[in-house]
Each structure stands twice: as structure tokens, then as C-alpha cells.
Amino acid sequence: NSNAVVIGAGHLGGALLNYVKFLDMGLSIVAAFDSDPSKVGQIVGGKTVYSIKDFDALIDTLTETIKSFD
Predict the structure, then answer these.
(1) Sheet of 47-51: strands edge to edge?
(2) For residue 4, which phi and psi values (nearest 5 degrees)?
(3) Listed residue (21, 47, 24) closest to 34, CA to CA
(4) Across all residues in the chain, what is the average pLDDT?
(5) Greatest alpha-carbon span in the chain
(6) Where are the alpha helices (DSSP H) in the chain?
(7) Phi (first) and psi of residue 25, to 5 degrees
(8) Is the per-residue pLDDT at 55 higher than 60?
């Protein structure tokens, strides 16, 4: 299985976050990042949307989360 984050939680990003068949293909999306403050903190497709400004600070933590799924 492979794990990923989505950059952008708008229409397309939201569709990707809600697409459950990725799991059937071996892909698990663990989080999303967006620059729109109204999207930050939302849960989309069961995944938290973080501020893109926090990407560098959070990617190590998310990488550990990703590794723990392996």
C-alpha cells in the first residue's frame, strides 16, 4: 500500500479525498493541505485539512503516520 496527502481541498481535492476506491487500488490518503482558511480544520472524506503554511512543519509528523500504516 502507498500513502499520500492531497494538496488543495477544493472541488477536485474533495473528490479525491472522498474517493473510497483508492483503498482498493492500494492508495491511502492520510491528510490534505489548502491555502483557503475556510477549508483549514475541516474534515473531508474523513481526513483533516491543514493549512498549506503548516506543510513543512507537519510533513515529518505525517510521514511518521504514513510509515505507521505500512
Answers:
(1) 2-7, 27-34, 47-51, 43-44
(2) -150, 165
(3) 47
(4) 88
(5) 32
(6) 11-18, 55-69
(7) -95, 0
(8) yes
pLDDT in tens, 11-26: 999 999 999 999 999 8
Is the CA virtual torsion 17, 37, 52, 8 positive or negative?
positive
- How many Cα neighbours within 13 Å face the side chain of 18? 9
Residue 67's SS3 state is helix
More confident residue, 6 or 62: 6
- Could you count the other beta carbons within 10 Å of the beta carbon of residue 14? 19
- Categorize the per-residue pLDDT at 62 as very low, low, confident or very high, splitting at 50, 70 and 90: confident
56's CB contacts (< 8 A; 6+ apart) are none
24's CB contacts (< 8 A; 6+ apart) are none
Sign of CA dihedral 62, 47, 29, 52: negative
